[in-house]
């Protein structure tokens, strides 16, 4: 049973389209995150939510809108996709906010914008 | 602001040889330090972590890391590398109360037979 699951695993779409990536965790964690990994493998945090409340928004364009319907789910919706949005998006979760918490990552969703 | 530096972009070692991957950090106090591994097409798996106490920490798959405050380093080591260790390795740090892992740029490990 996958701890942090993301769907879809692969997403190929045209510029200007809108797409969503879904994430679910069954670990009972309070905190969830979205990270972006670019073509050079660099990982950068985009958002974090704690108990459905937005905690971190790392100057991500407004085209990206996370939504957390409950603390087990964190979805990412992207409007008006651009070529530069092509990346692997990782969802993660942790027991809480404190820095000592270990993040558990999903397998990633590879987004390709043509 | 905190940062993590992994000086080696790519390392190649022979199977059975020892391995050391370098990680340096910049932060005013002692951070929480982590090593994650990413196999091709996979997510990130935690290898080990350092929070406090013994500066030599043991992880999964035979890996260990040593925290050296004087050098602001947290290098990852393995005495004998296996072909299945070929992957991307990320050092990361976290600080304070707002969990926000800051990653290094990663080191790609290639293992030759």
Mean pLDDT of chain B: 93
Name the beta content range of chain A. over 45%
N-C termini distance of chain B: 41 Å
Gyration radius of chain B, rounded: 13 Å
Structure characterization notes:
The complex is a heterodimer of chains A (about 110) and B (about 110). Chain A is mostly beta strands and about 110 residues long. Chain A has strands spanning about 5, 10-15, 20-25, 30-35, 45-50, 55, 65-70, 75-80, 85-95, 105, 110-114. In chain A, strands 2, 4, 5, 6, 9, 10 and 11 form a 7-stranded mixed beta sheet that branches. In chain A, strands 1-3-8-7 form a 4-stranded antiparallel beta sheet, with no helix packed on it. In chain A, strand 5 and strand 6 form a beta hairpin. The relative contact order of chain A is 0.33. With about 110 residues, chain B is mainly β. Helix content of chain B is about 0%, strand content about 50%. Chain B contains no helices and 12 strands. In chain B, strand 8 (about 65-70) and strand 9 (about 75-80) form a beta hairpin. In chain B, strands 2, 5, 6, 10, 11 and 12 form a 6-stranded mixed beta sheet that branches. A 4-stranded antiparallel beta sheet of chain B has the order 3-9-8-7, with no helix packed on it. A two-stranded antiparallel ribbon of chain B has the order 1-4. The chains are: A mainly beta (about 110), B mainly beta (about 110). Chains A and B meet through strand 4, strand 5, strand 9 and strand 10 of A and strand 5, strand 6 and strand 10 of B.
